[in-house]
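HUMAN: Quick job: go over this next protein and say how the chain folds.
***
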Amino acid sequence: MIAEKRIDILVEKQEKKPTKRGKDLEIIDINSIRNKDVREIGAEWLSYQAMNQLQIFQFLERQGWQQDDIKLAQSHIISRAVYPASELETTRWIKENSSVCEVTGYDIEKITKDRLYAISKKLYTEKEALEQHLSVRTNELFDIEDKIMLYDLQTHI
């Protein structure tokens, strides 16, 4: 970055002096740093990791979904978890603030409210099978055994 002059350092005024640990220090003028296209990634990455643990990608592949639709579905599910809003507002948020497309691999230029509506409808067609998959997967992940217990709470006088 220094060689390409992408950051400003005070080379003339500051000689490189090794620190006690033997590392060189550089002084950077923080007022000269410019960011463009800054995006959030924390909650998006966490949600993506949860989706990987739940194996939603693999489930949709088994259902015969195309890779592009799976990535769009993942992007939409993560967006709903992180920023619950309408499809129009979600589209704006993805394009302006979120790194969800970088995380899922879906082309951000393809995101539209109409595509988000369409993928929601397509996901809904998988509702029953997806719920069953998630039930089994969470039981496996958390070592849960499904049990039904019936109690008689009626008192006798």
Summary: The mean pLDDT is 86. The radius of gyration is 25 Å. The chain has seven helices and no strands. The longest helix spans residues 67-82.
